[in-house]
Amino acid sequence: MKVVVAGATGAIGRPLVAALRRSGHLVYALTRGGRSAESARARGATPIVADVLDRDNLLRAADGLTADAVIHELTAYKYSPPTHYRSPGLVRTNTLRDTGSRHLVEFTRAIGARRYLTQSLHLGYGLRDHGPEPVTELADFGRPQGDAADPFLAALRAAESHAWEAPDIDGIALRYGLFYGPGASDMFTRMLKLRALPMPAGGAGYTGFVHISDAAAATVAALERGRGGQPYNIVDDEPVTWDAFFDALAETIGARRPLRLHPRLLRLGSPLVAAQMLDMSIRLDNAKAKAELAWKPEYPTYRDGVRTLAPG
Questions:
Q1: What is the mean pLDDT of residues 40-67?
Q2: Is 131 exposed, middle or buried (0-12, 13-18, 19+ CB in 10 A)?
Q3: N or C: which end of the chain has fewer CB atoms below 10 A?
Q4: Model-level pTM?
């Protein structure tokens, strides 16, 4: 297939471009030019220079272009995920998920593509305790909570809604867990070595992780075999608490165990992170992705995956 990737030089975009090319797909990278375009070209993708938030500019870039699919992997997290609901990176990412997604669906139609995949997140199920039962794709997604998380949840809901709304396009949403692995954990490993990544005292909730290479492989599988109109949980096989994951990562890279911080201080300094660690606890079910996409993670648990970050 001829595939356009928006966000081809980001955390998931880099291994995704490589995985697409290994599978024999021809890759175009939608970039804003400059170093991003150079990086995409170096990875074997053909750059298309356009701004997804500028509808007219984006549609001009579609002139004379044909493709089979578009994959939306854009965020504005330049260096690390945001810690505050009002972080500029999160505010811009919310816009990319709503306005940018709407424009990308128009772009998809303009180039004659019939498949559209969008990045989503398991956090869209809600920053709350989901109990001990596995959460499937049938659970409510993007439901308002009546607090500061609502714009974030609304943006995730919008990204998926735009994927479904075009009747002539097979829209697919990939509800990724938290990325880790080479190239995706650099900020975490630096902070752990500096003991600057504290965990809440008293423990934290369960969440879903996925190794970055498994996330890329699942995306290629969804492109090739996913059903239009469907979301997929893209996570590994074992839910894990934040404490257990980062303790294991610290041990693997030779860092000391993360400091424990009073929950109140964590909420004051990093309210979005605190909500994910303290308020949310979720055990995600990946059975649908494994069955329908013929995909299974190469690193089925965090214990397998953190070994890829061992020194040397």
A1: 96
A2: exposed
A3: C
A4: 0.96
